[in-house]
Design a protein that fits this description.
Number of helices: 4
CATH class: Mainly Alpha
CATH topology: Helix Hairpins
Largest sheet: none
Strand content: under 5%
Structural class: mainly alpha
CATH architecture: Orthogonal Bundle
Order of helices and strands: HHHH
Radius of gyration: 19 Å
Number of strands: 0
Shape: elongated
Length: 114
Amino acid sequence: MNALLEEIASTDFMTMLGITVLVTVFLAFITAFFCFLLTRNIIRVVIAIEVMMKGVTLILIFAGAVTGKYDLAQAFVISMIVVEVIVAVVAAGIAVNVYRHTGSLDIRKLMKPN
């Protein structure tokens, strides 16, 4: 058991874990960003924003683990979760209202014709 704990605490394992976390967050953020830019559906835009915010949350957790300031990271993450919920609820309300008025969730239908 002690050998396992020593291996987990070794710098090689922590370096590999850090690289894995950073690559995962980077891929999730880039994927969500491209989804945000390329989609025309309001629901997909909301999902892309949520995935980007989850990436930021993961980075905050990782930064807290690296620096050893777990309490500060926890406070930031809880604040981010509250912000995520508020953004999701407001965006869902806007999407419902847009669907009621236009009959579609397409962003292009929101633009006024020239």
